[in-house]
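Example 3.2
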Amino acid sequence: MASAPHLPTDPISSPNNGKTFDQKRFARIRVATESDVPHIYKLMQQLFAYHNITHLLKSTENSIASALFKPKFPHLSPVTALVLEVSPYQFPYSTCKVDSNVINFIEPPLPLSADFDENLQGVLLGVKEIDLDNMPLIDEESEEFRDVKNQQDDVFIAGYVMFYPCFSSFFDNPVFHMEDLFIRECYRGKGFGKWMFSTIASKAARMGFSSIDWIASQWNKSAIQFYTQMGARISDDFRVLSLAGKALEAFNDDSDKGLCS
């Protein structure tokens, strides 16, 4: 016999104008749409601030929107972003209670082609119920990350992940490169990061991909521990190299002077 539906406690305003939630919270992961770009950019800013490298952030809302939805180079592998949304209320898509230990995936087509991202916009990838164990969650940035386009009130963006398919000569099948994975501070330690990473890993496995690759800062021991616990291996044999700025611009010479000398 099914249990009675849970009626969550209404969120209340906290003294700092944020939202306080108790008992339970509902969450879902979906593919980002163009209207999510301002939130993704703010999350990206927080990610760079967390790493203390805000001076290196060159992306803008326009460049993010272009990469995700209007690529300048459509023949290159498209980028996909997933967003994590949370609410004190059950999402309209979910017609029944979702067990907190189960992820219900809706299997959309994921073609390995230039329309990879277009086929996924807005697709729901997972729904979940989170038990807060009588420990209230205070979201001081709730209004800043409110999903105003949503028909349901009190839906907030809590995190994002950005990735793209690419070729690797180490494998016979494509791989995912995970560019960013970020969860806002008040939502950390509640399983959301694991859920988002598992979502990508599940898709990669089901699509026959060979690997997921990404970069982690050496000082970020907690992140490295998190990923190794998820099964990742650290490569000590390779270093990340980049050619950027003036070093790259030096090659922008139509005359190709010196290239053959």
